[in-house]
Amino acid sequence: MAGHGNGNGEEVKLLGIWFSPYVRRVVWALELKGIDYEWVELSFRDPKNRSRSLLEHNPVLKRVPVLVHRGRPVVESLVIVEYIDETWRNNPVLPLDPYERAVARFWANFVDQKITEVLIKLLSLTDKTQMEEEAKQASKALEIVDRELKAKGKKFFGGETIGLVDIALSIVTNWMEAIEEVLDVRIFDSRTHPLIAQWKTNFVEFVRHNLPPKDGLLRFYRRYHQSKIASVAPSRL
Amino acid sequence: MAGHGNGNGEEVKLLGIWFSPYVRRVVWALELKGIDYEWVELSFRDPKNRSRSLLEHNPVLKRVPVLVHRGRPVVESLVIVEYIDETWRNNPVLPLDPYERAVARFWANFVDQKITEVLIKLLSLTDKTQMEEEAKQASKALEIVDRELKAKGKKFFGGETIGLVDIALSIVTNWMEAIEEVLDVRIFDSRTHPLIAQWKTNFVEFVRHNLPPKDGLLRFYRRYHQSKIASVAPSRL
Question: What fold does the segment set B98-219 form as a domain?
């Protein structure tokens, strides 16, 4: 899993986990720039090695992704993406104009707070009514994103290639589809999100189907959700 | 409430509310740069005019701060601060080096998620045990920030002047003090946060005491917390 040469021989290492939507953001940013990097999978099956790596590289939050460049760790997915964009200037991920940059940051944060974080929260919920209410709010947020994409009138938020907002919005591809299936809730609807429907096809094609496979995500999220249900069971009896 | 001339005669307008910690971040960034701006107070006492302004300038989130520059709105406090820093290059708020910028963004987000958001959540809680648990977590997060400031060995995270992290951390001044008093919880402790104790003094002096007055915050937060308690009362009876 490597790019096409970073042209300067500097070591770039990415600590990740295959299913994480946050780690994948960094993968695409690196590949957009054509940067060679080493992928280090922090397997869930080797918790000891995993905690040692995280304690060393991300002692405050102890989570992936971690990008190690020139021996120094950079953490938090959107912070890493901006770091990559400011370090390697070819193929910009953010627009160059300050106002356009602010708009991109706004929408990336909007998607994170109103869609990505809600999806992850959904997996921990056990009350079906609350689950459906949260899903409805995420669906409404996605409608707002759909209108914004329509107003923009481009293939991607980044124009003809993907940018910061597209990288954040990637959650609505395989991840959201898997979570909807596991929880039997519906967020995406091609009638209320027609632009997003087309965007999904374009995005998956643009990243060359470099996504965690949906069947793998289904298995993983199903197990995760069941463990959450099991852990609250005693107090509900 | 204005700066010392932005040198280019462009209209800069800030829509805010006096007590908001998020709005104040923008005030300091503008004043650091010496930018003339018009302050537009969106009073809580005039909800009609307030909603009209917010619908016009921030239709997606409908909240302050909103910075209007050249007739275009920029929203979300940290996004606005970065916009100001990228638009007016004097007196940098973020470091210039990409790695240092990533570190500053990381800590600003850390303070937001682990301290600022927790403080605001505390005001909506009614269960004392939960309140104390959340306060304890925020206090631990502040210990981590204290260690980082010690490791940095400077007056501010920004060095000799305030930067992005200091602007985010401002929440621990009058706002946190008022919330601790209203809820009778304790987060800040000069024994476990000795560097933050000194930082608070330095910060308040640096911004020339340009903070919402503590007695005003006390009154506002007390009323706010009581309205939250009242609104959950029926279901708890």
Answer: Glutathione S-transferase Yfyf (Class Pi); Chain A, domain 2 (1.20.1050)
What are the distances in angstroms from CA A62 to CA A15, A42, A117, A205, B204? 11, 12, 18, 33, 33
**Percent of all residues in chain B with a pLDDT value above 90, rounded to a whole number:** 81
Write out the residues of chain A at the interface with chain B, using a CB-CB cutoff of 8 A. 60-61, 69, 72, 74-76, 79-80, 82-83, 86-87, 98-99, 101-102, 105-106, 109-110, 144
For residue B4, what pLDDT band results from cuts at 50, 70 and 90? very low
Outline which parts of chain B fall under CATH 1.20.1050.10: 98-219
Question: Are B79 and A105 in contact (CB < 8 Å)?
Answer: yes
By the 8 A CB rule, do B6 and B36 touch? yes
Q: For position B8, what pLDDT does the model report? A: 53
Indicate if the pLDDT at residue A188 is higher than 50: yes
The answer to whether B196 and B146 have CB atoms below 8 angstroms apart is yes
**pLDDT tens per residue, range A15-37:** 999 999 999 999 999 999 999 99
Mutate to test the interface with B, among A10, A22, A74 (most CBs of B within 10 A): A74
Chain B residues contacting A via beta carbons under 8 Å: 60-61, 69, 72, 74-76, 79-80, 82-83, 86-87, 98-99, 101-102, 105-106, 109-110, 144
Q: How far is CA B67 from CA A110, B24, B72, in A?
A: 18, 12, 8
Give the closest of A76, A105, A110 to B106, CB-based: A76
pLDDT class for A234, splitting at 50, 70, 90?
Answer: low
CATH topology of domain B12-87: Glutaredoxin (3.40.30)
Is residue B236 pLDDT above 50, yes or no?
no
Neighboring chain A residues of B99 at a CB cutoff of 8 Å: 69, 72, 74, 83
Cite the residue boundaries of each domain of chain A with CATH code 3.40.30.10: 12-87
Beta-strand relationship, A38-41 and A66-69: unpaired
Residue B202's nearest CA partner among B164, B161, B165 is B161
Tell me, what amino acid is at B215? D
Q: Tally the C-alpha atoms within 13 A of residue A152's C-alpha that lie toward its C-beta.
A: 22
Residue A55 pLDDT > 90: no
Among A5-14, A48-57, A182-191, B202-211, the least confident range: A5-14
pLDDT digits (tens, 9 = 90+) for B167-192: 999 999 999 999 999 999 999 999 99
For residue A40, give the 3-state DSSP assignment.
strand
CB contact under 8 A, B105 and A76: yes
Q: Is there a contact between B34 and B90 (Cβ–Cβ < 8 Å)?
A: yes
